[in-house]
Write a structure and sequence with these properties.
This protein has helices at about 30-35, 70-75; strands at about 10-15, 20-25, 55-60, 60-65, 80, 85, 90-95. It has one domain (about 10-95): Roll (Ubiquitin-like (UB roll)). It starts with 7 loop residues before the first strand and ends with a strand. By secondary structure, it is mostly beta strands. The chain contains two helices and seven strands; from the N terminus they run ββαββαβββ. It is globular, with a radius of gyration of 12 Å. The structure holds FE2/S2 (inorganic) cluster. FE2/S2 (inorganic) cluster binds next to loops. FE2/S2 (inorganic) cluster binds near residues 43, 44, 45, 81 and 83.
């Protein structure tokens, strides 16, 4: 949980050939929002370090909890770690390693 004025955004999630729309709070991570919506999405460390959850950002603004632990190439080419990423706007992502 982070200290921001509560807001709800639309999170559009591409998993394989499916597209899902999730109502997501800015007070929970993208990973938690997707799990709460019943989506099967990859995770392991849930702390931003392993990269197992890394997903491609299509559009949207975000904040990262704590230090940004993404590889430089991930950050450069627009990949995020949903386990430590919070929405600051509507967002669209592509989940790469769906179970
Ligand atoms: S689950 Fe390890 S970086 Fe997200």
């Amino acid at each position: 949980m982070r200290d921001v004025k509560p807001a709800t955004y639309k999170l559009t999630v591409h998993i394989n050939d499916q597209v899902y729309e999730v109502k997501a709070s800015n007070n929970e991570t993208l990973l938690v929002s997707m799990e709460r919506a019943g989506l099967s999405v990859p995770s392991s460390c849930r702390a931003g370090g392993c990269g197992f959850c890394h997903s491609k950002l299509v559009s949207g603004k975000f904040s990262i909890a704590g230090a940004d632990k993404r590889r430089l190439a991930d950050a450069k080419f627009g990949y995020i770690h949903p386990c430590v990423t919070y929405l600051d706007s509507d967002m669209e992502i592509i989940v790469l390693q769906a179970k």
